[in-house]
Amino acid sequence: MTLGILGGVFDPPHNGHLALARGAIERFELDRLLVLVADRPGHRDVTLDGATRLRLARAAFGNLPGAEIALDEHPFTVDLVAGGGYRDAWFIVGADELAAFARWKEPQSVLDEVRLAVGTRPGYAPDRLEEAVEALGRPGRIELFELVPPVEVSASAVRQRLSREEPIDELVPPAVAGLIAELALYRP
Length: 188
What we know:
Elements: E1 3-8, H1 15-27, E2 32-38, H2 50-61, E3 67-72, H3 77-81, E4 90-94, H4 95-100, H5 107-113, E5 115-120, H6 126-136, E6 142-146, H7 155-163, H8 174-183
Parallel strand pairs: 1-2, 1-4, 2-3, 4-5, 5-6
């Protein structure tokens, strides 16, 4: 059984996250996709509490084949994968996360446990990706795959639009937009 893990704060989940999940499912023929919502991430602040972000993630990813969505109590990825419970699973990240991966807590320990599946998009500087892979010194543990079609969106852009009371329908899955509206999230 091939397992993929997509972790994040999902504040909120958007179409880029969904494209990354779908691309990884297809490219790596994943039987199971574990979507983990970081309850209290050790690397950044979040706007919403973990339970609310979990509801949003379930709305975003709940219809994907083999998807399981859960709250992750670990502040850092290395804490999650330590001990081998996810040995050789595909840990799914975007190209921007690969570029920052060397600054993660104990990146080599993460690579000891899981392989990185890195979703790239056309136009993302290939030399930056090559530099990041070379800096980690573990090319056999990292595989790039292209997201087609590319999706240009960020959670901060979604939050900014919502704070200005602008529509977000083209940025997030319909179920996420509906839940955000229903709960009046990210509003001024």
